Amino acid sequence: MFHPSDIVLIGLTTVAATIDARCRRIPNWLNAGIALVGIGAYLSGHGITWMALGMSLLGLLCGFVLLFPAFAIGAMGGGDVKLLAAVGAWTGPLGILIVLLAATVAGAVIALIQAASSGKLAPLLHNSGLLVLNLAHVRSVGVEHIEQTGKAFRSIDRPLPYAVAMLAGVIVWCAWF
Asked: How far is the CA of 128 from the CAs of 110, 111, 144, in angstroms?
């Protein structure tokens, strides 16, 4: 059974996922609201202490830092980074790792289905392989080259609505804890 604060988090993430699926963007006001409510929810569940506040803010920071490199190379939108940060305010630093792991698996499945249904599975696999190789050899190819490879993901089809994958990650985390 889900805790009431879990239901609120799932509801807010569902709103973000719906907007992302329709518009391929997540509004800043929504991410900020999720983060602020998340800090309050974390404090109400762990006690109103400096330690709890610090853990909630650390979760927010971890969520931001974990996805920022993907944003920096053009493989992910800024709203996705801010959404994971906002979710981190709810989960704390350990929880955000679980959310990200589950979201990564869900995102990979969604990307494969999306590419296969649009007949673009081969380019997706090709560009994914190139990105992995480029990341492994970042010192020799340079960051600019990796940025171009990351942008190739966006040219395959409409960008993946990663908030949908994050919703799956949030549900896994809520069910786990």
From this structure: 14, 11, 17
